[in-house]
């Protein structure tokens, strides 16, 4: 059973305009180029592994965001389907969830980590 610690009730005032999506898409593409370069050039030293993993993860998020732009679902929360805050997307163009679902996601991960006997990383299939 899901915990209802956070409820998503806020109505969004500042939805994305097509021009905003264009700007964000450009930012995502630039960031992707940057990350591709840095992950390709990263030496295999263990010290850089955490950073490399983080970059690769971000790269995946950016690819997913670009795919959502293509699909026309960009700016909608992947969890509740509501339009995301424009300011949030300008800060995190690759954001997948709105603030409230992000908190719920994190809370659930937290719960999963503290449940004994369940392998870490087990997720119940959320639609991407
Ligand atoms: Zn949401």
Walk me through the structure.
With 128 residues, this protein is mostly helical. The protein is 54% helix and 0% strand. It is built from 4 helices and no strands. The protein has helices at residues 18-41, 49-71, 86-91, 99-114. Helix 1 (18-41) packs antiparallel against helix 2. The radius of gyration is 17 Å and the shape is flat. The chain starts with 17 loop residues before the first helix and ends in a 14-residue tail after the last helix. Mean pLDDT is 82; it is low at 1-6. The site of zinc ion (ZN) has 9 residues, from helix 4. Zinc ion binds next to helix 4.
Which labels suit this protein?
single chain; 4 helices; mainly alpha; binds zinc ion
Short description:
By secondary structure, this protein is mostly helical.
What compounds are bound to the protein?
zinc ion
Shape descriptor:
flat
Number of strands: 0
Classify the secondary structure makeup into a structural class. mainly alpha
Beta content: under 5%
Helix content percent band: 40-55%
Compute the number of helices: 4
Rg is 17 Å
Our measurement of the CA-to-CA distance between the termini, rounded to an integer number of angstroms, reads 21 Å
- Mean pLDDT equals 82
The biggest beta sheet reads: none
Are there runs of 5+ residues with pLDDT below 50, and where? 1-6
SSE succession: HHHH
Can you lay out the helices and strands and say which pair or pack?
Blueprint: H1 18-41, H2 49-71, H3 86-91, H4 99-114
Helix pairs in contact: 1-2
This protein binds zinc ion.
